[in-house]
Write a structure and sequence with these properties.
The chain is mainly beta. Helix content is 9%, strand content 29%. It has one helix at 112-122, and strands spanning 48-49, 55-56, 64-65, 68-77, 80-90, 93-94, 100-106.
């Protein structure tokens, strides 16, 4: 989520029910992670984060990875890890899939063991 010093970010916590009141976090450290990250290019393209911790696509939402070159995407969606390998990307790549949990984009391909690690991290099957 892009943010600067003047912006406030929201954190969704699991637990069920309809929470009331508020939670205060203090002394939080934030750092940039190296690598290729997805972003929603505008309000109309932001998917809905559901109570089941998955992203819902209502037909016009997307998460865009602004990449060019050959990359592989490993997308956790619908209970499975989807491998979209060696894709020629030309400026952007729409990685949102129905009921998506997360995605990893790498230059190259992952071995079967690495794919298993990604699937285990997201709680889906290979």
């Amino acid at each position: 989520m892009p943010a600067d010093d003047a912006q406030t970010a929201l954190l969704a916590l699991g637990g069920g029910g309809s929470p009331t009141g508020s939670i205060t976090f203090s002394s939080i450290s934030v750092r940039e992670l190296a690598g290729n990250h997805c972003l929603a290019p505008g309000d109309a393209a932001r998917p809905t984060y559901q109570a089941d911790k998955k992203l819902a696509d209502d037909g016009d939402d997307s998460l865009i990875a602004p990449l060019t070159g050959i990359y592989s995407a490993y997308i956790a969606a619908g209970g499975s890890l989807i491998a979209d390998e060696s894709v020629a990307m030309a400026g952007d790549y729409d990685v949102l899939r129905d009921n998506m949990v997360g995605a990893v984009l790498v230059s190259g391909t992952l071995t079967a063991a690495q794919q298993q690690q990604v699937a285990a991290y997201f709680g889906v099957a290979v």
